Amino acid sequence: MQFYYGEQNILRALDEAEFWKHQEAEHAGLIPVVTPGLEADYTQKLEQFGVEMKHMNAEAVKYIQSIVRSRGAVSHQLKAQMLEFIKRCVDQSKSFSELMEDMLQNSVAVRSSQPSQTVIHHMIRESQYFIGIDQLILGHV
């Protein structure tokens, strides 16, 4: 990974958060579609994740717009808020990955569907990519 963003590494982290929160919201909606008979508890949790991820995506867009409007001259207070937001995004992705791991282990519907298992494994890898990339970026902010 390149760190040529310099002082703008936080913008890179926000760009990643915006993209991956959108992706994860789509993933949360796709799992019930590709998993016939998915248990209601999992479906409800996925719907809630989808809503929360859409909110996080919108918040990421607002932070990015703030940086662009300020031409990168971000106050220490706003930068601290952005860093906390990015950490919340990472934590949310960790929780989402844990839910998907739980479905792989405990959902009869998922265990009965090889396509569902394949899709969920792929989604977990994508969430883990986001977690790793933003944690790496945070280490250089």
What does this structure look like?
The protein is an all-alpha fold. It has a single domain (15-138), classed as Ferritin (Up-down Bundle). Helix content is 82%, strand content 0%. It has five helices and no strands. The protein has helices at residues 9-34, 40-69, 76-106, 108-111, 114-138. Helix 1 runs antiparallel to helix 2 and helix 2 runs antiparallel to helix 3 (76-106). The protein is elongated and about 55 Å long. The two termini are 14 Å apart. The model has no long low-confidence stretch (mean pLDDT 91).
CATH domain class name: Mainly Alpha
- What Rg do the Cα atoms give? 17 Å
β content, as a range? under 5%
The percent range for helix content is over 70%
Order of helices and strands: HHHHH
Largest sheet: none
What is the tally of beta strands?
A: 0
Q: Which terms would index this structure?
A:
5 helices, mainly alpha, single chain, Ferritin, 141 residues, elongated
What is the topological layout?
Elements: H1 9-34, H2 40-69, H3 76-106, H4 108-111, H5 114-138
Helix pairs in contact: 1-2, 1-3, 1-5, 2-3, 3-5
In short:
82% of the residues lie in helices and 0% in strands. By secondary structure, the chain is mainly alpha-helical. It has a single domain (15-138), classed as Ferritin (Up-down Bundle), CATH 1.20.1260.120.
